[in-house]
Amino acid sequence: xxxxxxxxxxxxxxxxxxxxxxxxxxxxxxxxxxxxxxxxxxxxxxxxxxxxxxxxxxxxxxxxxxxxxxxxxxxxxxxxxxxxxxxxxxxxxxxxxxxxxxxxxxxxxxxxxxxxxxxxxxxxxxxxxxxxxxxxxxxxxxxxxxxxxxxxxxxxxxxxxxxxxxxxxxxxxxxxxxxxxxxxxxxxxxxxxxxxxxxxxxxxxxxxxxxxxxxxxxxxxxxxxxxxxxxxxxxxxxxxxxxxxxxxxxxxxxxxxxxxxxxxxxxxxxxxxxxxxxxxxxxxxxxxxxxxxxxxxxxxxxxxxxxxxxxxxxxxxxxxxxxxxxxxxxxxxxxxxxxxxxxxxxxxxxxxxxxxxxx
Length: 359
Fold this sequence. Notes:
This protein is an alpha+beta fold. Helix content is about 60%, strand content about 5%. The chain has 17 helices and seven strands. The chain has helices spanning about 15-25, 30-35, 40-45, 55-65, 70-85, 120-130, 140-150, 155-170, 195, 200-215, 220-225, 245-270, 275-285, 290-300, 305-325, 330-340, 345-355, and strands at about 100, 110, 115, 140, 180-185, 190, 200. The strands form two sheets. Strands 3-2-1-7 form a four-stranded mixed beta sheet. Strands 4-6-5 form a three-stranded antiparallel beta sheet. Helix 11 (about 220-225) runs antiparallel to helix 12 (about 245-270). The termini are far apart.
């Protein structure tokens, strides 16, 4: 486990593929031939020499190996983790100059393209929480509750004031007539985004999703841009904020963006692009029937009807085992569409046969 987060590091994608391949008793040559790729390309992928493979290649390998829902979810997480490392810069919405705060993943602050150290965990938690409330700011009492709970020390107020003061210095002090963190009424702190020209990835993500909902023509492009800003769980390196309502709310916004992208991608003819995001969402929310229904539809739209029905069967079993309930209508409706072959290549062929002119 890592010292910083206490989490077990994720297995590399290449190592996962190799483990799955060997578990199925398939040689590299056999898998490469079945997936339509060279054995050298597969070897590079398994040994981690491929910087960031296209998702279509990964999906094809998973289909050839017949990976189950859980294995595909694990593979998706490893694929996204690979992208976090290899696509670290540039990132959508980032300008090189000025100050930028990123919270859609581990907390990172950049000054003119260079990361800056933020100090101890509680100090980072203060900045993370202020970034989660860019419009309203936070009362000092809310920060004290977050940092120490119901029994704060007598020194809590000066300690919070010290954290804020040091963060101001770290982030560059006064810019013109404004400080990066302002104090309102003596006890409410606020990030001065506009006054100091601070870039915040959360604000860029929210703007991109609003634009996607308002512009059906560019929706897929905008959703892809918005979701590309995420580098992992929000403020993933700060245990103090885990489960906080503001964190949960932003995670829900990401889930809504994934579902919006999924709904826009099928009519746009690019369902495969959303699969990594949707698989990751389903892995994080194993009981979210709406997300699983969309996953079934996208799998069917990419010709993976069997995998789509496997998703239904796995969730039905989980619901029965944990709660003794049947799947909701949204999930059974998705199953019906798949069984009737009303989504994907089969549906396209049926429509072409119906509309084809007679000879």
